[in-house]
Write a structure and sequence with these properties.
The protein is built from six helices and four strands; from the N terminus they run H-H-E-H-H-E-E-E-H-H. The chain is α/β, with parallel strands linked by helices. Helix 1 packs parallel to helix 3. The two termini are 19 Å apart.
Amino acid sequence: LASDLAAFARPGVSAPERAAVQALIAKGFGTKPGDALTLVGYSEGGIVGANLIASGAVTHLGGRVAGLVAVASPISAAHLPADTKVISLEHTDDPVPKLDLAEHKNDSNWTTVRLNASGLDTHFLHSYQVSLSQMTPEEKASLNQALAKLTGGHSAGYAARTGFEAVRVAS
């Protein structure tokens, strides 16, 4: 809960943000020409991704931000550069994406895809996985348009997914 609150408070202060920057440095991100990063996060992970972009942490390393995909994250109030491409996936009945009390955006660079789900588990990641597998044609079209903006219409290229584990050590 402490890291959630720190991430929600302002960019650059939460332990997950610091861990993500350390992981990017360890991987050598920003050291090669053309390094670009699409940040993807669920719940607090979306806030962390937005904060990494808003604080300039990614561009400070020498790389470029390709975009942000946030699932179930309260990021509408994030102060992102105007050219940041964002896809925000939200269940209509999930209260968590509404925690920032901001208007949910839809503009040329920001697409909010609202998925239908009901019940007590609307914030669970599994619930989002189920909703994505059961998308209506309208929801699929909205998501595909947003993905085309995010990728610049390109579906080919190099992508890497790397896992890192951050461990909190008692002092």
